[in-house]
Amino acid sequence: MQKVIDYVLSLGGYVFVPLVLILVGLLFRLSFLKSLKSAVTVGVGFLGLNLVTTLIGEYLSPAVNAMVDRFGFQLQVMDLGSGTSAGIAFSTTVGALIIPIIFALNVVLLLLRLTRTMNIDIFNYSHYALTGSIVALITDSLIYGLIAAMMHCIFSLIAADFTAKRVQKVIGIEGISIPQGYASSTVPLYALLEAIYEKLPFMKNRNVDTQFIQKKFGMFGDPVIIGVILGIIISLLAGTGFKEGATLVIVVAGIMILFPRVIRIIVEGLLPISDAAKKFFNERFGGKELYIGLDSAVTLGHPTTITVGILIIPITLLLAAILPGNRVLPLADLAFAPFFICMATILHKGDVIRTLISSTINMALVLYISTWFTPYYTELAVKGGFAKEGTNVSALYVGNVYDFVVTLFMRLGAAGIIALVVLAAVPIYFYIKKMSFKDQQNETIKG
C-alpha cells in the first residue's frame, strides 16, 4: 500500500490532477479529446504555479533566514515546513491508509447528498493524515486516528461547500470549491471576523481592495509597483546587498505578475469541465450542483492575497518574537505565507485592510497551535527519520484549527467522537436546508 501511495505522490500535482480531470470530464460526458485538452491545460497551469512557488522558495526563503539571523530571534522549536510535514504524515500507518479511506468517505457523502464537493486534491490529504497520525500517537489507537482524519475531512468539506460560491465569484472559476485541509480550517475564523467588521461603523460597507488602492493612489497601487515596494522592504529587513536586493525586488514583482496569469490558464482548462458538470447535473439531479474540490493554490492569483501574503512574512516573524508562550521559529513555511491567508481574501471579498488584520490574527493562532503540537510532531518526525533524537521541531503547517479541535476532542475517546459528529451535523443540516430552498427556487424559476 505504501509503495502505491509513494508512486501516486511521485507523479506530482501537474500530472496526477490532469489524470483525475480526464476521468471527471469523461464522467460528465465530455469527449475524450476535450477532456484531454482541458486536463492538460490545467496541468500546465499547475506546472506554472509550481515554477512560481519554486521562485518563492529559492529567493524568499534565504531572505527570511537572513532576517532571522539579523534580528537574532531566539526560539527553540524549528519550523520544518509543509513538504516535510506531508512526508511525515504519509510515512505513518494512518498515512498509508488515508487516501482510499478519505476518497471513499467523500463519495459516500456525495451519494448521501451531505456535501456537494468532490475533493480531487489528493496530495493535500496529507493534512488529514497528519491529524490522524497525531491522534493515533496520543491515543495509541489506529481506529481513533482514522476517525480523526475522517472528521478533519468532513469539516473541510463543510467549509468548502459554505465558501464555494464566494470562491467562484472572487477568483472567477465556476463549479469549484476549496476543501484543502489548511485553507478550509481558516474559514470559521475569517467568517467570524467578517461579521465583526460589518458591525464596525468605520469598516461597514467599505471595500478597500487593490482596485480601490490603484484608483486612489495611481501607479503606487499598481501590482508591479506594489511588488517593487514589498521587495525593497524585505531586502532592507534582511540586510541584503544591492545584487541580492535587486534580484529579490524583481522576483517579488514577478510573483505579482505571474500568479494571476498562471491562474488564468487553470481557469481556461477548468471551464469546459465545469460547463459539462453543470449540464450533467441539470439533466440527472434537477439542477443540483457538484463542486470540484481543488488545492487552495488556485486562489493565489488575487492581488490582495499576494500583497498581504508578502507583508505577513515580517509580521509573522515579529509575532514569533513577541508573543508570550510561542516557541516556534517560523522558517521553512514562512515564504509560503499566501497559502495561510488566501481564504481571508475570499471571505473579505478582496479587502486589503480586513485581509491584513485577519491574517495577522490567524498567524498568531498558527504559532500557538504549532507550539502546542511540538511534542507530538517531534515524536512523529523522529520516528519517521525526519528529525534527530533530542531536537524540538514543529511546522506552521500543523498550526491548523481543525487539527487542534479534532485532536482535543479525540483525546476524550468515544465521548469526543460523539461531540465531533454533533459539531459537524449542525452546519451540515443548516447548509442542506439552505441549499434545498435555493434548489426549489431555481426549479420554480425554470418552471
TrEMBL record:
Biological process (GO) annotations held by this record are:
phosphoenolpyruvate-dependent sugar phosphotransferase system
Mind listing the GO molecular function terms for this protein? galactitol transmembrane transporter activity
Which terms are listed as keywords in the entry?
Cell membrane, Membrane, Phosphotransferase system, Sugar transport, Transmembrane, Transmembrane helix, Transport
Keyword Transcription present in the record's keywords: the answer is no
What are its GO cellular component terms?
Answer: plasma membrane
Q: Which residues cross the membrane?
A: 12-32, 39-60, 88-112, 133-160, 217-239, 245-263, 329-348, 355-373, 408-432
Specify the domain of life of the species encoding this protein: Bacteria
- Where does it live in the cell? Cell membrane
Major localisation = membrane
How would you describe this protein's topology in the membrane?
Multi-pass membrane protein
Q: Which InterPro entries match?
A: EIIC-GAT, PTS_EIIC_2, PTS_sugar-sp_permease
Domain spans labelled PTS EIIC type-2: 5-437
Indicate what this protein is called per its UniProt record.
PTS system IIC component, Gat family
